[in-house]
User: Fold these one by one.
Assistant:
Number 1:
Amino acid sequence: MRAALLFGREDMRVVDILRPAPGPDEALVRVVAYAPYGTDIGHYTNRGGRYARAYPYGVGADFSGIVEAVGSEVTHVRPGDRVTALALNHCGKCAWCVKGVTNLCLDAEAISRARQACCQQFTIVAANKLALMPDAVSFEQGAMLAGVVVALNGFELMEVDPARPLVVIGVGAMGLAVIATAAAMGIGTIALGGTGGRVDYARALGARVLPLESYGTMVTSEALAISPNGFDQIIETTCSDWGLKQAVEVAGRLATIGVTGGGALPDCVWDIVLRQLRLVGISCGHHQQQALDLMASGKLKLDTTISRRFTLDQAPEAFALLAGREAADIGRVIIEIGAA
Ligand SMILES: [Zn+2]
């Protein structure tokens, strides 16, 4: 069968390879449509050496096709079925999978299983990732499923209010999917990004777009001109430092920022995405009275952490102590400056 493989950085060649056979829990699918995302382009350019692995290898995860053959344990799809698949693997048995939240699968072995490569005539897929496509869904639409799934998950996790604008950072493959899904759900969007024709695609979907003069420029002041106190629901889709910075700068007080996944993210941010963590900024708040009440109740034992008391004249000694190695052994220090 014909397959587009990467043989090195920006070295893609279409070659003949052996058609694989499905394992017991796998399906062999004849690929009809494949829609590349930014992560696939990251593999192609091997941006920052981040994607380097043993060449050659096949690319792409988001596709649709027709089941050609299935393994012995596969029952929910049959040859001839029109199907689409997600990129992430799951076990189907752990507590999260049983609840249907397969993207939070706890089975390390299942989720580390090799993903399908779909820029080729046939692909092997873990059969539990396949979904049947209704007749009204075209193969092209089915190949673009992942962005819509991400968007719907984001709207739910972020508790997006359809009555307020949703800011979308980026108008690439994921950004357009978020904007289109928002439009379908009656959510208005303001998109930040785009230097060329992608801006028109975003506008045609109904977004108000603030394009960039050139790649990497900031448009936060234009956005804040629309809403001087910032926005309260923002989805970042570029997986870049630029995008995260834009998202934070246009965020108002107590805003919710959703971050979508992509290979270009720093590892720690990627972990936040995959485990759907909620990273909450916490400043010293407005709870003085509650704190004082806790102290007065006697339930709060913070005073037991005081290990040393100094006078004002002893302040240099106190600072030397706190800055030195002995600091590891002491709790809080109080400098008694005046008489009570
Ligand atoms: Zn699982």
Number 2:
Amino acid sequence: MLTPDFTPFPELKTKRLLLRRITMDDAAAIFFLRSDETVLKFIGKEPAASMEEAKAFIQRVNDAIDANESIIWAITLQHNPEEVIGTICYWRLQPENYRAEIGYALHPKHWRKGIMKEAIVEVLDYGFETMKLHSIEARTSTDNIASGSILEATGFVKEAHLKEEFFFRGEFSDTIIYSRLQ
Ligand SMILES: CC(C)(COP(=O)(O)OP(=O)(O)OC[C@H]1O[C@@H](n2cnc3c(N)ncnc32)[C@H](O)[C@@H]1OP(=O)(O)O)[C@@H](O)C(=O)NCCC(=O)NCCS
């Protein structure tokens, strides 16, 4: 059985990035990522309606980190660690299967600069080497070309195409499941 331990919080560094813990001071950036229609386009969630919702989210994810149930990092640039430009997480942990799902979102002004690829590579290394995951899953909408491409660019393999699996705003849509083994 997997027994993840997120204490002390594992800050991760890459060439350009610092992945750190989210705090209440990041509420405005988290609110943006959870309410901007461009970011949410293929995520299938209603936008956050208020800063209070963003703060409740921060509280929830930090409680889950303390309980070793899931982990989320704020993505920041090393030269400006105060400004959160995205998030990346492992959630839906299945300790008995040594498996977790990865999720990520980036502020559109930073798209297509290789930032999420850099973050995913580092977080995969942490997942396999430190958390001891055996497999990592990712789910995307078939229409989310950027997410599918980045997963293939980081070694994920398409394993399933679920037809009309997801219902949102009156429409059914397809989901692709990708996974990567250790
Ligand atoms: C998906 C997302 C995280 C990509 O982040 P990013 O930092 O722009 O991606 P990168 O620059 O690291 O791209 C790495 C590779 O992914 C692919 N890629 C990224 N964006 C792409 C796009 N819009 N179209 C096609 N391919 C794309 C390319 O292969 C790219 O390699 P290249 O730059 O050599 O062409 C970003 O678009 C995003 O936050 N989207 C909204 C949230 C979201 O959909 N999250 C995923 C939910 S499943």
